[in-house]
Specification:
about 170 residues; mainly alpha; 2 domains; 9 helices; about 0% strand; extended
Length: about 170
């Protein structure tokens, strides 16, 4: 295989298609057939299978965030929490009852009006262990890691704002 042929093969890897088609029409036809097959298969999934897939996807996204945190002013913890709850429950109030907190407290955490307390994080951790028990392995410390990684990177992203003010109050005496 020549270098040019090898380059063409790897160009379309992101589409999941073999790029050795003789024409764009043939390539498009194959892409359409693949998408139709995927959609047909998705239609036949049970509600349980969909929930399992969403939870596995969430776990992978959370782990990826922990491995490669993003420096920006965005609350990923609450976003992941929303996805987690909305995947499992039709109403968030049911989740609040399941972890024995008030719906108001849950809403405040989700909408970034309050920081989650340690007790909240512990209950979330235990809840996740139970949910993921029959789905896939879930590291029990994941929610804590998410929360504290976000805090750390939020502070570091705003370092230019706070450091001059803080530096005025810090001295080093030998």
């Amino acid at each position: 295989m020549t270098k040019k042929e090898n380059k063409n093969i790897t160009e379309d890897v992101e589409f999941g298609l073999d790029s050795r088609y003789s024409s764009n029409k043939e390539k498009q036809s194959e892409a359409t057939a693949l998408m139709e097959a995927r959609l047909e298969r998705m239609k036949n999934l049970s509600k349980d299978q969909i929930i399992r897939a969403k939870l596995m996807q969430l776990r992978l996204k959370m782990e990826d965030y922990i491995q490669h945190p993003v420096y920006e002013k965005h609350n990923y913890f609450s976003e992941f929490l929303k996805i987690y709850i909305d995947t499992l429950y039709t109403k968030r109030i049911h989740f609040a009852h399941d972890i024995d907190i008030t719906p108001i407290r849950l809403s405040q955490v989700i909408n970034n009006h309050r920081e989650p307390k340690d007790e909240f994080l512990k209950r979330l951790m235990v809840h996740s262990e139970k949910v993921y028990e029959n789905i896939c392995e879930f590291q029990e410390e994941t929610w804590y890691q998410l929360y504290f990684h976000e805090k750390l990177y939020s502070i570091m992203a705003r370092k230019k704002e706070w450091k001059p003010k803080v530096a005025k109050h810090v001295k080093y005496s030998k």
